[in-house]
Amino acid sequence: MPWRRVGVARALIIMVLNGETAGQGVTGVRDACRAWTEAQRAAIEAPPGARLLITGPTGSGKTEALMARYHHLASQGVRTDNILVLVMNRPQIHRWRAGVRLPAAGSLHILTYFGFVQRELKRFWPLVAASLPPGRQTLAPLFLTADAAQYFVELLVERKRRRGGFRNVISPVDRVAIQINDNLNKAAVAGIDYREIGARLKAARVAPEDKVQAFDDMQEVLEGFREICLAGRALSYGLSVEIYRAHLLAQPDYRARLQAEVEHLIVDNLEESVPAAQDLVALLLDGGAGATLAFSRDGGHSIFWGADPAAALAMARARCRVVEFPDIFTCSPAVRDWSAALAEAVAAVPEAPAPPPLAYERIVTDLRSDMLLAVGERVGRLVRDGVPPGEIAVIAPHVDKMLEYTLQGLLLREGIALKNITRSRRLIDAPYALALITVSLLAHPEWDIPPGYGDLLESMRLLLRLDPVRSAVLAEAIIARGGPGLPALDAATRARVGFSAGERYDTLARWLTDYLMGEKLPFPVFLQKVFGEILAPLGLGGEDLASCRQLLTTARRFALVCAALGDFDGAPPGRHFVEMLRRGTVAAESLEEETGGEAVLLATPYAYLVTGQTSAHQFWLDIAGTGWLASDARELTNPHVLSRRWSPGDCWNDAMDQAVRRHKAARTLRALARRCREGLFLAESAYSSAGYEQNGVLSLVFDRLLGVDGP
Amino acid sequence: MIEMRPGVREILAYRGGYMAVPAVPGAGKTTTLACLAAELIAAGTGGRVLIVTYMHAAVGNFKQKLARFLEEKGLPPTRGYEVKTLHGLAVTVLRERPDRLLIDEALRVLDPAERERILRAETRRWIGENYEVWQGAVRSHAGESVVRRRDKLKKWERRTVELMGQLISHFKCRGLTVERLEPLLPQLAEASFLRWAIEVFRRYQWRLATLARQDFDDLILNALTLLEEDAGVRERLQKRWPYIFEDEAQDSNPLQEKMLFLLAGEKGNLVRVGDANQAIMGTFTVAEPELFRSFCRREGVVVSPLLSSSRSSRDIIELANLLVDWVRAEHPTPACRTALEGQHIAPVPPGDRFPNPVPPRYTIVFREYRTGDEELRHVVREACRYTRENPTKTAAILVPDRYVMADAMALLDKMGAVYREVAGGPAERRRTVQTLGAVLDYLAYPHRADKLVRALQRTVWPEIDEEEFAPFRELLVSQPLEQLLYPLAGSLDWARLPREITEHPFWENFARHLAEVRRWLDAARMPPESLILFLAEELGLAEEELAIAQRVALAVRDLVRENPSWRLPDLAEQLLLTETMFDYFTQVVYERKGFSPEPGVISLSTYHRAKGLEWDTVFVVGVTDDRFPSLLTDSFRDELWFLRPELANPGALARAELRTLLGEGSGDPVRDARIEVIGERLRLLYVAVTRAKENLMVTAHREKVLPSGGTSRVRPAVPFRRLAAHAGSRAGENKRFGEGS
User: Fold this and answer.
1) Do B589 and A658 touch (CB under 8 A)?
2) What was the pLDDT predicted at A105?
3) Chain B nearest C-alpha distance from A271 (Å)
4) What percent of chain B clears pLDDT 90, i.e. is strictly above it?
5) Statement: residue A709 has pLDDT above 80
6) Chain B contacts of A173, Cβ < 8 Å?
7) What is the biggest distance separating any 2 CA atoms in chain A, rounded to whole angstroms?
């Protein structure tokens, strides 16, 4: 997974988008396997107080069994209020909500671990607040959004860099900030003291050298940020978990109450859970709750995000009876065996040729652009041959614009839809969001960010319903005359843009003058006013409307955060908000496209795997690149060093790095193969998009497996 | 099958250890190495043979030859080896563990244009803060006019930027970091060029860090650092590449050499092939020809020379060998007599499948002209005549620099000659980027007719020649564009358009293209990265051009990330200003298949770019003593006449000062630099004459036209005169150049 700014966006998008795609739903599955296997039935119908650990490979029907178990418990009289369901992510929540159909249910408690933490902090805030160090007085905690946290850490990193910090770090500010936030989060979920983060990462480096100073710089930024947040009671993900564990879970009264509340615990994807969540599970189980936990043996895809499958398994085994679901329903037994051979070949050196028991084709080109064309052409051919588009998945370690655009273009010509579930767009690129911001800049000269010519051109075009040429004429005139507000037009310009556009312009100019002369509004209110008085009359719909709404919501939340964090650097909150948007920190939430499952899927391996989907045909792209064997270690973060199982004093060396890369790739490929039913296409190019020769290991592994390598 | 010429058998018997292969021009070193690689692969290496070359074209060449040998052996043609340029190798190494050096895995590299811009900005800033000491280096005359003084300072400023760039490169190639150099500052005088460079270096590195980029030198240095510091990575790569071949080893620099030694490891399976007499990269890079020579002398290194060559006629070989002998025995500057190794080219033995060409008579000509213009005109005419009369033969004009290149192109164009710039002129390759830049530039300023005209000329109307296009251009410029593209009801009376336009056969296309422009304008709302891809599709780009467009999209994504508030106008400006930004990539895509001269098409190349190539007939232009100095008192182009005489070669002075401070001894830096230049130019001449298979014409002139309009005397270079005397004595039988060959 590329873990950059798009990483933030991506994580959001995955959550939003996958709700529907994951919807095989419990009903669907129950139809498909009308008869449960013996093991499944036994697990579903076990007595409510039983503690079961269901283990089995991907596609063995664990989730479906859990849902059936939930129904069974309810039918046995366990109140849904007393059943806590912990799932991996938002798409899974949707999947559960869609799957659980109870005639007269109480409230459903289906949450992610973090959702649970947030809920508890809200419920018991007065209790928590009393034990926190002095800070802002609040009635409820304020949860910092990922984009706001990202933005403020970026500012701190920049400040440090200006003072000579991060001198040897060759990495952009946004990426550095992501890693710092990430460290805070990982340490929190592993229960590691945030004060040790820098030292721990530093100690794990092999040689003392000029580069270690960066870790001290990082620690300084990280502590500074945490301090501001804590004082303002603005809780980031990591801080929430930390506070929940230290200030709530530590209180015996609370623990007793929680244990009494949860009569039965259901956990799906236990293998993707973080240690803090595992602690919670252990606590509830030790308090006497019944439990049904599901653990996938080919999971562990979230290790980078702090998950610890081995610890989860050990914790659950010690407390539960293990029930094995051995059968896979998503691929043939032959593919299951081959996927294991593939994983072995990737993890170590392949022994002997072992071609896949699927139809397969290799696509090898010189230039990456040609590879993309070839892939598009093959996808088109499959569809022409009668394969439903929804049965085709194109999977690449980096889903970039080139890939999306090429594929989309080729498929569109044949009337085939493409659904990119990893797409991320900046909110600022949504045209009406930009227009809102441009008007804000015109109305707030004191922010000292005059709108650029390009911003004005785009905004005039939308707000005045103008063609691009006349908008450009206007934009140039506005720039030439300068602000604040909008200048009066001279006769020549007026003649060029036309009479009615000129009138619309005057109206907008007057509106701005009125505002500039009158009382200043807080920026979220101002934005609301612009939206209501200028944009809404244009009759927006669909994505345009959604992007404006998102902008307004984000602004409201951001204003609260600014109020909580206090005077960050003297700049007005509105200015910070605009700056954050212009940096592209905020990703646009996409509306779910109505493709009815009849779209070719484009995804990264991770995004694909968490949808829980299967496909008849899979395309694995860029197998000569290094993306498939990406490391978990980054410049300033490393989930393994920030895990409980790391022994301080160890060094993160090349052998570990290699082992982790290979095992991760092996795990990913095995899980992918187990979701593939008919055909596999392997595509690679000799040169990357940036023009570098590619000789990645995966391509060689396939040479060996397919028996085309040399002696 | 490979021809078993002297030396080949020994090389093919190689199975391990260090081996040096000194090879003369045309000795078939690529073929021999490819054959050896195939032998090793067939025997089983346990990994892959790594072949490192210096040019993208050579990568393609190698791959093709190796694939053929492997196929002959019934092996898969693309397996068992990796061919990389040095930069490709550095990227491969760094990708193994970028986190180890705190580098973002994207490994963003500063493109040359951006590098230049940062250098310029930082140098100017430095000059601003140190103006007095900086301008003190410039020579001043009593009564000098203000204009003249300003002119000199302007030149000095430009040269200072270049100097800083060269010295920073020099530091990096010596593995010297800012941290290592800064402690030297207290020992350096205010006026020391080395001090200036260290100070600019510090700022330059800081800028790079904030941009999160490495420059090309950093790539190599960081790859080496990773190999040095991380035994795990090093051992893994040693296993991956049990054999390493280095091509053009005479162009190696100390960092590269170190990297290859590290990768070769203790087993030392390293084969280095080169020709010390063709070491011509010293002025452009920090290559050190001495490295290969000393490798050949090292203990434990097996030397297997390849001295037979079938490329040239015996007469041309005789001439090249004469140049070697003359330099070594009689060069007027004794210190330059080691510039060429005493290594003779031998013709191939009788019975060789590819014998040396045998022209009917002596076909080497040396000719002098009064001016450079006259010289070039005559050569171009001769080249045109030759290709006309010999349509199956290949021919090339080799010129000393890009200025003469431009003149030659103008003349060739005028004569309607079919020619091609070797390795595709940068101009030709930048077309895609320029086209995209021009369209973006218009889309950023949709009301600007001048920009629309340029965008259209670069895209849908290139075929319209000036005259025919004029009325349409007139129309675009005279009418407000909004009325043409988006007429409001009744605002444009089509009926009143001149009939010359509406009845023009092109009129329908024009209207259609306006619709196309509207489509582009509609698309201009897309995020810029998508817009580029959209335009690539609209313009029907394919293959290399499509790859370039995608590369541009990638760069645009990075630019927007780094400059979040940038919109189209900024991006368009960036693309138009820094089209060189994509030179690395275009070079990769266009040269990956190598270059082969086409019969009937005149190749045009600088001496430098001609390396590794051959033609039936070669014209070597401009062999004058200002370009090929021989005496320490000659004029040297890298010396700056406007500086105080003792400071005329600032680069050499700074490097010498650095050597002294690092305790490496010095000498007379200016003299040493001159000796180096003389030597390198001699080797360049050697490269030029050895490109010819059958016919060779070498020319020079006696008068140089100055920018002021006046002339100054130059002379044919000393080696020109020496070789001309030899050719003259043998050319009795020669009547007309190239005739009947």
Assistant:
1) no
2) 61
3) 27
4) 56
5) no
6) 212
7) 85
- DSSP secondary structure code for residue B645 in this structure: G
Mean pLDDT of all residues belonging to chain B: 89
d(CA B133, CA B405): 38
Quick check: B227 contacting A, CB < 8 Å? no
CB burial class (10 A; 0-12, 13-18, 19+) of residue B47?
Answer: middle
How many residues are recorded in chain A? 711
User: Cα–Cα–Cα angle for B282, B288, B294, nearest 5°?
Assistant: 150
How far apart, in whole angstroms, are the C-alpha atoms of residue B211 and residue B218? 14
Residue of A400, A582, A658 lying closest to B564 (CB–CB):
A582
Which tokens in the block code for residue B504?
């023009």
**Stretch B308-332: mean pLDDT:** 96
More reliable by pLDDT, B665 or B346: B346
Residues of A in contact with B574 (CB under 8 A): none
Nearest CA in chain A to B591: A691
Q: Using DSSP, state whether A418 is helix, strand or coil.
A: strand
Per-residue pLDDT, averaged over A491-517, amounts to 94
Contact yes or no for B551 and A169 at CB 8 A: no
Question: β-strand B692-705 against B615-620: which pairing, if any?
Answer: parallel
Structure tokens at B96: 């193994």
Alpha-carbon distances, residue A112 vs A115, A306, B276, B329 (angstroms):
5, 14, 68, 85
- Is B99 within 8 Å of A635 when comparing Cβ atoms? yes
- pLDDT > 70? residue A497: yes
Confidence band for A231, pLDDT divided at 50, 70 and 90 = very high
pTM score above 0.80: yes
CB pairs under 8 A between A and B: 207
Best residue of A401, A465, A662 to probe chain B, by most B CBs closer than 10 Å: A401
Nearest chain A Cα distance for residue B439, angstroms: 15
DSSP A670: H
* A661: pLDDT strictly greater than 80: yes
Count how many Cα atoms sit within 13 Å of the Cα of residue B470 in the half-sphere of its side chain. 4
B346-347 and B308-309 as β-strands: parallel, antiparallel, unpaired?
parallel
DSSP A187-205: HHHHT--GGGHHHHHHHTS
Helix ranges (H only) for B7-111 are 8-12, 29-43, 56-72, 86-96
CB-CB contact of B66 with B80 (8 Å): no
Substitution target in B447, B539, B592 with the highest count of A β-carbons within 10 Å is: B447
Task: Report the distance separating Cα A489 and Cα A497, nearest Å.
Answer: 10
From the CB of residue B467, how many other CB atoms can be counted at a distance below 10 Å?
Answer: 7
Whole-number pLDDT of residue B285: 63
Give the span between the Cα atoms of A330 and A62, in whole angstroms: 12
Residue B659 CB partners (closer than 8 Å, separation 6+): B665, B666
Are A691 and B91 within 8 A, CB to CB?
A: no
Alpha carbon dihedral B8, B12, B17, B22, in 10-degree steps, equals 20
d(CA A178, CA A335): 38
Backbone angles phi, psi at B130, to 5 degrees: -130, 40
Q: Is the Cβ–Cβ distance between A623 and A696 less than 8 Å?
A: yes
- Alpha-carbon distance A590 to nearest alpha carbon in chain B (angstroms): 15
| Residue of A179, A181, A276, A166 whose CA lies nearest to A226 | A181
8 Å CB contact of B103 and A170? yes
Peptide bond into A484 cis (omega under 30): yes
- CB contacts of A210 in chain B (<8 Å) are 177, 179
The 10s digit of each residue's pLDDT in B404-428 is 999 999 999 999 888 988 865 556 6
Q: For an interface test with B, give the residue of A215, A367, A437 to mutate (most B CBs within 10 A).
A: A367
CB-CB contact of B363 with B693 (8 Å): no
Longest dimension (CA), chain B: 89
